[in-house]
Task: structure prediction
Amino acid sequence: MTMTNQSYNLWLWANWPVPRHVRAGISLRKGGVSLPPFDELNLGLHVGDDVKNVLNNRDILSQHLSLTSDPVWLDQLHSTNIIMVDNHTIAASADGSYTIEKNTACTVITADCVPILFCNAGGTKIAAIHAGWRGISSGIVEKAIRLFSKPNTIYVWIGPCISSDNYEVGKDMYDQCRNKKSILKTAFTKKNEDHWYCDLTKMVKTILYRTGVHQIYECGLCTYRMNKLFYSYRREGVTGRQASMIWME
Result:
């Protein structure tokens, strides 16, 4: 199910029917201090932007969201590592985090990959993962689902990512995904003998449905196409990163 979203500023709230004390969404690229090609609200420290500007941007976002503690920022490696965090957690190498603690913002950064947010029915456990094709084919989505006791009660929000018509890939990637998980081949549309279009969102949804998750809320926005709102590595190469967060008040 694709959900429409509210008016844009520097933050886009997730539109999904989770308990009201659960807050979630994704940052946009306006409203920060970074200069081109990272303009403006770049939140990634690893992309070559001035560190002071990135830290300033992170403060701007935290203040805008009235967060009472710093978000938990991860050093993402396209892995399947998901760590448990609280508001005392220092940055760690992982591609996802989960918590049962209030005022702890599970955070992932993206610029075409899929940010996926999870919440149980009672709003007592939340998670956020960064899912590119490597992570998806290696099992990060299933690993996140296993953090929750009942898949059929999980709410999932799929954030903005690159759309299939803008994500052309080669035979090597297609073969790797198909060989690791045969069910993922349905997410590829053949262009010619050597190239395919890859639908990352369909990859994620295929796994979610197969594992018993049905309360799926898809943002439906394309990072590549919507250049005024989102960073896109495929479109720009050297660019910033937006952050998806989920926390409990």
